[in-house]
Task: inverse folding
């Protein structure tokens, strides 16, 4: 199975900050990567697919980049509702696999 | 509004069965591949099973193969996960998730989690 490794595992930031989360795949997955946001007690919400394409309705403060094995999610101008856990997921190779998550906390 | 609504969780003894259901609305359910994904307490997301739009093809994670069965009823806009021979390690929050135009495993909609607790 393809291993997805996110860094950092947790991150503290302030309202208004810009943060970047990294995701590395153990093999080349081209751009078959999605990002999800999960608030405590809620279902995951899809933010980005194909590494950089925003899902409908997702604000442009979220952006994704990368291809191959290295990917990033950037969130600009953090607001209270952005503090959540973020997961990357590859869907290039069966079975689909997720990163361990990055918990974004308020400083 | 697109929605997925799950039901059927609960507390079950080790070795017992349980069936989860997930009803879709606001989108063409019969045109959407569906998956189940779970999250054990404090752990990351783990894909469990998927089913094609017609139900003719099913897929399972190695951890549940032979114990879980996924099915769907497009007339009821519902996907099911029949779980048997449950183990303590199956304790998790189970989510149904909808595949999208970018792929069966490219999820664009998730249902609220269904809590499953297996007692040993």
Result:
């Amino acid at each position: 199975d393809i291993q997805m490794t996110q860094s950092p595992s947790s991150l503290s930031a302030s309202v208004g900050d810009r943060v970047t989360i990294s995701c590395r795949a153990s093999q080349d997955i081209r751009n078959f990567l999605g990002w999800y946001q999960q608030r405590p007690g809620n279902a995951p919400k899809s933010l980005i697919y194909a590494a950089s394409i925003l899902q409908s309705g997702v604000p442009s403060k979220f952006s994704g980049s990368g291809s191959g094995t290295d990917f990033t999610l950037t969130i600009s101008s953090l607001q209270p509702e952005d503090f959540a856990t973020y997961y990357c997921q590859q869907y290039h190779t069966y079975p689909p696999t997720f990163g361990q998550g990055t918990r974004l906390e308020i400083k | 509004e697109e929605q997925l609504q799950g039901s059927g969780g609960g507390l079950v003894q080790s070795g017992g069965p349980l069936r989860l259901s997930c009803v879709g609305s606001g989108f063409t359910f019969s045109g959407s591949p569906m998956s189940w994904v779970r999250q054990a307490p404090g752990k990351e997301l783990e894909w469990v099973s998927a089913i094609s739009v017609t139900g003719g093809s099913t897929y399972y994670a190695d951890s549940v193969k032979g114990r879980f069965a996924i099915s769907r009823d497009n007339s009821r806009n519902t996907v099911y996960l029949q779980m048997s021979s449950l183990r303590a390690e199956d304790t998790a929050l189970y989510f149904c998730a909808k595949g999208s135009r970018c792929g069966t495993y490219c999820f664009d909609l998730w249902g609220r989690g269904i809590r499953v607790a297996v007692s040993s």
Chain A has no helices and eleven strands. The mean pLDDT of chain A is 97. The first strand of chain A starts at residue 4 and ends at 7.
